[in-house]
């Protein structure tokens, strides 16, 4: 006689005891537990209830049975299990990002589809983290009797249901009430059931497919990609096109062909602000079998959309980074739009990059993966230029429209001329010209708030956050100082220095300050400010962009969220403010980020019949990165950047791993980081075939965050199985010396120099 044993990984495990534990599957649960099942187990000496995920199920004979094995307490229904392809992604995250099993599980399935422990009649059982919202659904079960004579509503209900089941809401829209339906159920004419409530988040968008007409260059791009879409092997391609070249129209044709092949498509965008326009295009072209996954949905909406995908009711999924885990079956096409954006990288465990997960999914599903950008990552373009990906280019704007004309405004000259404002005189004149012509403008300033620093005029003391090593930022509407990292707030606004009692001077500028300047300079202008402070409410991005698209506003002022992917036909002027702080930022991707941001925001102008122009305010107008961005010359920038990367040994010529150490005592954190480096170096010395350079330890750029001190080691390496095994061995040694009690350690392979 055989019994079944489940190998499970438990929740709330540290990385040092995150391993497989064996549990007996009791007879009532046999046939209900598979790899990927979520289960409840007794754990530890006190048999405390823990959620767990089943990694494997094995057979155990009577002779080999272990008498000490505990039994599972409960198991989730079969429909809640992770499918084999999702379990493959869980293993991938565990292997590549050094997260725990359950951190990977939480990344793959949304909160509402997860389970927790609760007590029922005194015993621990599993319960949904979110009770699924269901609705009544009616099915025709028999014919309507002639007597007593049926009423018009009963006849209407039966006729409506002859076409198939309908929900109570759908029948109510036809004037058929619940009492009528209850009567028909009692007669046996209808059968009532329950189903997950269907949620069409974008019912207001009409299904209005228009013929997609491609220009010659777009058609060539499509023809280059179609063979890779239509064969049954994994492929990757880079679609590199200048801003306004019509990459989205190529996407639509690829999706159209994917659906014709009976397969499904996944479209990723980097920002929530970009989803409304993409959703509108996809919904109007392909109809209602479209699902959405992003963090702005509430838990119920996200769960219902996830169930819609899981049950096979969606052909296309669009969303931000987390949508890469959407449970689509028979996936044929994955698109990463604006692939250069850092928001595709997770900043909390598991610290994954959507690029890597997309490549894994494409390999699992034999799908075509398309990276798309006007300013691709240096690593992506290098892979395409060297034949690892297919390189497909679009060099002309759609309709042969010209790129915007770009001018520089030297802010040193503005100051010398007596203009202390952040909006230059030339910028104000051009904005006024647009107002007079009934045209719209976009202004980019990647800094929110009003003033960015408060400093004492006597002793020079800067008002810093008490929990983080960063200055507090003045927010005028709240009349408060706020920390943009931990949220610490100081009210009322200090007027005197806490150190010497001297007068405080607030300087620097953010979006709130520029909004106020615009109101003074252009009182008739309708200004829409779009930043993290103004988009906190639900659907704020969608409402604001819709208002700007209707020309309810003349000027859109915002942070990076206004720089990418937006397409408004009346925008003819783009202005860039405060770019110098990014130009001289830290991290090996600083120039790449500036080039991308400036190129992308310039590309928002002149996308329809009206020609576009752009103005860049800077103190270094001759800087080569700004000059190349103004010329939209990506190839020249790439040649400069790849030479710098090779000389300095940065990706793509090595992998770049940052080991971060966080703890309450600065000295203990520094010592723990040093000891980790020593342990790693000792083990690497025994494996000379593993290439590695170790730098540090050193304080991070923000050396204290939320009251915790932060140090880092920088490791230049080859991210392969041998190096990851070396890191795991070092982590084990670090744990054996009980160093995690002094400083927790985090490994990130996607950082450009800090965490």
Automatic annotation (TrEMBL):
Keyword vocabulary terms for this entry: ATP-binding, DNA replication, DNA-binding, Helicase, Hydrolase, Isomerase, Metal-binding, Nucleotide-binding, Primosome, Zinc
Binding-site positions, Zn(2+) 1: 456, 459, 497, 500
Enzyme class, UniProt record, top EC level: isomerase
A GO term from the CC aspect: primosome complex
GO BP term, pick one: DNA recombination
CC cofactor note: Binds 2 zinc ions per subunit.
Catalytic activity as recorded in UniProt: Couples ATP hydrolysis with the unwinding of duplex DNA by translocating in the 3'-5' direction; ATP + H2O = ADP + phosphate + H(+)
Gene Ontology molecular function, alphabetical: 3'-5' DNA helicase activity; ATP binding; DNA binding; hydrolase activity; zinc ion binding
Cofactor(s) required for function per UniProt: Zn(2+)
Highest taxon, organism lineage: Bacteria
Entry EC number(s): 5.6.2.4
CDD domains cross-referenced by the UniProt entry: DEXHc_priA (cd17929), SF2_C_priA (cd18804)
Domain Helicase ATP-binding: 228-394
Location of the Helicase C-terminal domain: 492-650
SUPFAM superfamilies: P-loop containing nucleoside triphosphate hydrolases (SSF52540)
Residues that bind Zn(2+) 2: 465, 468, 483, 486
Family stated for the protein in its record: Belongs to the helicase family. PriA subfamily.
PANTHER family in the record: PRIMOSOMAL PROTEIN N
Job description of the protein: Initiates the restart of stalled replication forks, which reloads the replicative helicase on sites other than the origin of replication. Recognizes and binds to abandoned replication forks and remodels them to uncover a helicase loading site. Promotes assembly of the primosome at these replication forks.
Subunit structure: Component of the replication restart primosome.
Name of the featured protein: Replication restart protein PriA
Origin species: Candidatus Gemmiger avistercoris
């Amino acid at each position: 006689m055989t019994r079944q044993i489940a190998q499970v990984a438990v929740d709330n495990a540290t990385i040092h005891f995150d391993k497989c534990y064996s549990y007996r599957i009791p007879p009532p649960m046999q046939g209900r537990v598979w790899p990927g099942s979520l289960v409840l187990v007794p754990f530890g000496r006190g048999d405390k209830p823990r959620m767990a995920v089943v990694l494997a199920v094995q057979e155990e004979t009577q002779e080999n049975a272990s008498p000490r094995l505990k039994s599972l307490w409960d198991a989730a229904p079969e429909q809640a299990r992770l499918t084999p392809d999702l379990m493959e992604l869980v293993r991938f995250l565990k292997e590549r990002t050094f997260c725990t099993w359950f951190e990977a599980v939480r990344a793959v399935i949304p909160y509402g589809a997860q389970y927790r422990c609760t007590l029922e009649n005194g015993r621990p059982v599993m319960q949904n983290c979110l009770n699924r919202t269901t609705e009544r659904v009616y099915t025709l079960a028999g014919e309507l009797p002639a007597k007593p004579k049926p009423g018009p509503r009963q006849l209407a209900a039966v006729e409506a249901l002859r076409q198939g089941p309908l929900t109570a809401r759908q029948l109510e829209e036809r004037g058929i009430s619940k009492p009528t339906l209850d009567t028909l159920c009692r007669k046996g004419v209808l059968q009532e059931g329950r189903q997950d409530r269907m949620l069409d988040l974008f019912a207001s968008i009409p299904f209005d497919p228009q013929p997609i007409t491609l220009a010659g260059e777009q058609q060539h791009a499509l023809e280059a990609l179609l063979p890779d879409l239509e064969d049954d092997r994994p492929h990757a391609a880079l679609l590199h096109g200048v801003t306004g070249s019509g990459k989205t129209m190529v996407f639509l044709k690829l999706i159209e062909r994917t659906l014709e092949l009976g397969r499904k498509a996944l479209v990723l965008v980097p920002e929530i602000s970009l989803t409304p326009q993409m959703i509108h295009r996809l919904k109007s072209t392909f109809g209602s079998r479209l699902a959405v996954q992003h963090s702005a949905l509430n838990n119920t909406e996200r769960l219902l959309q996830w169930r819609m995908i899981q049950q096979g009711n969606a052909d296309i999924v669009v969303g931000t980074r987390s949508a890469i885990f959407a449970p689509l079956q028979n996936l044929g096409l994955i698109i990463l739009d604006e692939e250069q954006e850092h928001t595709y990288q997770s900043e909390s465990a598991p610290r994954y990059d959507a690029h890597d997960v997309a490549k894994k999914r494409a390999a699992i599903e034999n799908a075509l993966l398309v990276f798309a950008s006007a300013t691709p990552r240096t690593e992506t373009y290098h892979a395409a230029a060297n034949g690892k990906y297919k390189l497909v280019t679009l060099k002309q704007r759609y309709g042969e429209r010209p790129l915007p004309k770009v001018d520089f405004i030297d802010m040193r000259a503005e100051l010398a001329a007596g203009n202390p404002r952040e909006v230059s005189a030339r910028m104000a004149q051009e904005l006024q010209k647009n107002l007079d012509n009934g045209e719209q403008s976009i202004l980019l300033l990647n800094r929110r708030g009003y003033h960015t620093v408060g400093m004492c005029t006597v002793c020079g003391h800067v008002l810093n956050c008490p929990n983080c090593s960063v200055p507090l930022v003045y927010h005028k509407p709240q009349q408060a100082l706020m920390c943009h990292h931990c949220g610490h707030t100081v009210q009322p606004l200090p007027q005197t220095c806490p150190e010497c009692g001297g007068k405080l001077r607030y300087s620097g500028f953010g979006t709130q300050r520029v909004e106020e300047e615009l109101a003074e300079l252009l009182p008739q202008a309708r200004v829409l400010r779009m930043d993290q402070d103004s988009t906190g409410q639900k659907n704020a991005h969608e409402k604001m962009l819709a208002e700007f698209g209707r020309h309810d506003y003349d000027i859109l002022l915002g942070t990076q969220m206004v720089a990418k992917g937006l397409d408004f036909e009346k925008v003819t002027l783009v202005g860039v403010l405060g770019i110098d702080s990014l130009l001289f930022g830290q991290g090996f991707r600083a120039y790449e980020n500036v080039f991308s941001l400036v190129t992308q925001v310039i590309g928002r102008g002149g996308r329809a019949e009206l020609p576009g122009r752009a103005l860049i305010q800077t103190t270094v107008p001759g800087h080569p990165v700004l000059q190349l961005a103004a010329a939209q010359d990506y190839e020249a920038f790439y040649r400069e950047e790849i030479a710098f990367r090779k000389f300095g040994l940065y990706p793509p010529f090595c992998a770049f791993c940052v080991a971060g150490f966080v703890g309450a005592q600065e000295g203990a954190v520094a010592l723990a980081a040093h000891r980790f480096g020593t342990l790693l170096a000792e083990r690497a010395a025994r494996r000379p075939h593993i290439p590695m350079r170790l730098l540090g330890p050193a304080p991070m750029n923000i050396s204290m965050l939320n009251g915790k001190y932060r140090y880092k080691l920088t490791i230049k390496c080859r991210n392969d199985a041998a190096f990851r095994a070396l890191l795991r061995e070092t982590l084990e040694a670090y744990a054996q010396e009980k160093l995690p009690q002094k400083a927790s350690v985090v490994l990130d392979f996607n950082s450009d120099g800090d965490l």
